[in-house]
Write a structure and sequence with these properties.
612 residues, Beta-Lactamase, 14 helices
Amino acid sequence: MKRLTARLTGLFALLFILYSFLFAYNANLVVEHAVGEETQEQMTETAATLRKSFMSLDEENIQNRDRKWVGMINNLIGVLNPAERIIIYDMDKRELIAMGNADLPAAPRESQAFDRAWANTTDFKTHDNNSEDNTIYQYTEFMRNSKGDPIAYIQIIRAVSDLSAAQSRLMGIAFICSILAMAVLLALLYYYFKRLSNPVQAITRIVDDLSHNDYQSRYESKGIEEFDEIGRNINGLAENLERQQGQILTQQKRLNQLIDYLIVGVLLIDDQQRIQVSNSAFFTILGIETNDIWGKRYDNVLHGYRLKQMIENCFQDKSNYNDEVYLYYPKEVILDVNVIYIEESPAGPDTGSQVIVLIYDITEIRRLEKVRTDFISNASHELKTPITSIQGFAETLLDGALEDPDLAQEFVGIIASESNRLTSLISDILDLSKIEQDQIGHKVESIDLEVLANGAVVQAEELALRKGISLHTVNLREEPIIFNSEAGRIDQILTNLVNNGIKYTNPGGDVWIILDLMEAEGYVHISVKDNGVGIPREDLPRIFERFYRVSKDRSTNSGGTGLGLSIVRNLVNSMNGKIHVESQYGQGSCFNVYLPMLDLEDNDDGIEILEE
């Protein structure tokens, strides 16, 4: 805008200077023309006076120079201007009389100029006098008598002072006036253009801010209604854009949050096969550590031949693909992959065709399916074993073994034992199902943890005595640990863990129940430790699965249903607790349980509060 203002100001200045010089030049011409016309008019008036005097003369009066001639001369003297020279010739070109300023030059009678003037009845001539600074005007005319016959020829010569000095002064005055006027004009133009440029610059700045997504700028009134109206419209536009930008940013933020919080990995690839959009689940599922993948080709980022092949086929065939993909690097996962082709929209932005890749991690689903399959297989096996035993011994009794009292007594004892085992197995399965579905009621009460531990020891004491195992209860606080929780569930946890320790501890071993209070963290800590056979490291992640046994030999020797640890884990989870195991094969195991201390005043839905 400043350059435009300077250009317009300079243009107006040049135009004004040109106008000033043209005005001065035309003024000089007008003055010169006016002086010439005035001079010719005066010379014409002199000629008219002489013309009247010659009307009464004839050639004889002129030749004799009588009284009429003298009268004409007197008339001539009366009209003679000191700046003029009048010369009268007879018809033979002889000079009769010359009066006035003798310094004024006349055309010699023998010259071509005189002949040209003689040939014209009336004529005006001008020429510059080289000796003086003036201009010579010459008027020639034939004087006629009353009959119309030419009787004389007159030359009227007048000198007019040279107008160059006046013209120069006029030009100087015009130049000075033009300079002053130009200065005033420039000041006015500067003020005017500055007044105009301020709103234009303000509008330009705001529009530039809008083009750079800065919608905070506003136009302030400059006192020019036309620009203020434009400014108000631009302010309205800025407010609308700011509001729309806020809505767009809000929607974009919500969309980004939605994409980021999806458990499905999302990947958007453009027609140049470069990654444009991805979410957090994508990196987590595929185990990609860096987030700097925007703009990179997908085949430089993704691993797995089948996954890249599906994307490539989608681009080539413009078709959607779905498949289950196994990846082994950087981590082993099973993926449900959907590759969707999006055609370029003619009415939309010029983004070209795109491909969306949706990746769902089904590793856990497949693992749970395997666990379910294993559970059904193990449950069938565990149920079939006692049933087969019962059926076999019952058939043996029916085939005649009843006649042998000792043998019958032994077989009936085996049948009773297998029946109890089957009942216990079915009971554990039902309990586990209820716990998993949270169908067992919650009863929160004030309990003494050491009392519960001692009760679990009493329940397991007979089994421990049969194997020659010593049971111990250790309270690290050396004072009663009293807190609010669910006594029934804690008792079941302790019973299962103690029985498990007894089963896998060799005769002469020990099982400890260690109690502690983590008051700052709001937990009680229960440890059930043994010095038994221990658990191999590779089996530790699976020991809480239903019917999982470290080895068939341990299953055969220990008895039990194989559901105890699974029941313990589900009970701990139902109480919002934590459990983990530490074990060294051949040296024993330690199960650590952390249970939260509940507040009797915080009664969640579905929890029955018992108070003494």
